[in-house]
Amino acid sequence: MKAVVLAAGEGSRLKPFTATRPKVMIPVGNKPILEYVIDALQESGIIDIVLVVGYKREKIMDYFSDGHKWGVNITYVEQFQQLGTAHALRQASHLIKDHFLVINGDTVIDSSAIKQIIRHQGGDATMLTVTVDKAQKYGVVQIQNSLVKSIQEKPTHKEIGNTVNAGIYCFSPKIFDFLEYMDISERGDYEITDAIRKMIDNDIPVRAVHTNATWMDAAYLWDLIDLNAATLARQKAESHGAVEEGAHVIGAVKIGENTVIRSGSYIVGPVNIGDNCDIGPDTVILPSTSIGSNSTIEPFARISNCIIMSNVRISSFNHITNSIIGEGVTIGPSFIAESDSTKVEVENKLMRANIGAIVGDNTEIAGRVLVKPGKIIGVRCKIGSGTIIWTNVGDNTRVL
Q: Which of 44, 46, 74, 236 could form a disulfide with 67 if both were Cys (CB 3.0 to 4.6 A apart)?
């Protein structure tokens, strides 16, 4: 069976990190989100993969190439305009001759769930469903006798249920008949779920397969921190670097090649530290933190529940919690990222989340800077000494 992986979208709600990469290439647990999808497919026995790419496609193609490193064969097709999931799937129609799997590239899914939908697929359409706490973020599915009866996107009423569409399907080529002539959705896209509704209206059964396996996606910035914690919780202790005498490394800590943990440092897993990093001395790194390759954490820094991407330099006496620091960021001494329950602005809406600082790629932050909870600093910014960041800072902005 082939799998079509939809990886063409930008992910505007995850800016500033999608200003420099597609959503599926944002790292969690020190791997791009898409890599977890590729791994799960390979573990499920699916090795022929069609990747639908579009926005900043070169980031995906350079990283995964032909897929042989992951034990799979990857073919690329391009969605030149990002017009929704149905439009993306249509781009792969010429490569499909039999039943196939469709999966969104921005989810972390356990391979057991993929095996489950393959095992229980039937007819022309099968949908994987999961149970979530906050169903209002997703497409809520009504099921009767194991068949999908309706899909309601992002309902406003909590009473409608908490069984949602996982964005994973098994289709026969018949799905392409329903992708040809579609109306645009309220969100301005052509959606697979609209094609499924048309199938239901035409009395074509759509089977529902429910799973309790791990399934997570990243709709918002704070979801990335949750994904990071979840992926790190699955790892085991592994060290390919050097831990100096006097350093304490406890629990499931993964240390990359040529990385040095210097004396007096205290690290409690799950933590993942990439290759060629220099940590400490006397640095504290607490659970659910990933640190990308080629990064430096200087003495007396304290980092907890964070995503620190590659090529980052964090100076002494930093205090960073529940935060995401983008690639190539430089942070001066005595930086504090406050973390608390706060309102975060997303696409001109205020949403409540417990989060610290969000810092985009290649930003330079001088010493003694304080960032208030939930504030977003864009890419390529320069923040001067002694600054308090009370509001969001746009890309390429200089704050003195």
A: 74
291 forms bridges with which residues in the sheet? 273, 308
Q: What is the pLDDT of residue 187?
A: 61
Q: What is the model's pLDDT at position 164? A: 86
Q: Measure the CA–CA gap between 141 and 32, rounded to whole angstroms.
A: 29
Across-strand partners of 282? none
The residue ranges of every structural domain in the chain are 2-219, 235-399
Are the beta carbons of 63 and 25 closer than 8 angstroms?
yes
Please tell me the predicted confidence (pLDDT) of residue 295. 98
The residue count of the chain comes to 400
Q: Which residues pair with 217 in a beta bridge?
A: 107
The pLDDT value given to residue 144: 85
Q: Which two tokens stand for residue 342?
A: 């706060």
Options 3.40.50.10610, 3.90.550.10, 3.30.450.40, 3.30.559.10; which CATH number does 2-219 get? 3.90.550.10
| Residue 152 bridge partners (DSSP) | 140
Q: Which residue has 């109306």 as its token pair?
A: 183
* Torsion angle in degrees (nearest 10) through CA of 324, 327, 332, 335: 0
The segments of the chain whose pLDDT lies below 50 read none
Q: Pseudo-torsion of CA 240, 28, 237, 263, nearest 10°?
A: 60
- DSSP code of 293? T
Q: How many CB atoms lie within 10 A of CB 107?
A: 23
Q: How far is 314 from 308, CA to CA, in rounded Å? A: 10
CATH fold label, 235-399: UDP N-Acetylglucosamine Acyltransferase; domain 1 (2.160.10)
Give just the sign of the alpha carbon dihedral 290, 269, 217, 68.
positive
CA-CA distance, 210 to 127, in Å (whole number)? 8
Q: 18: which DSSP letter? A: G
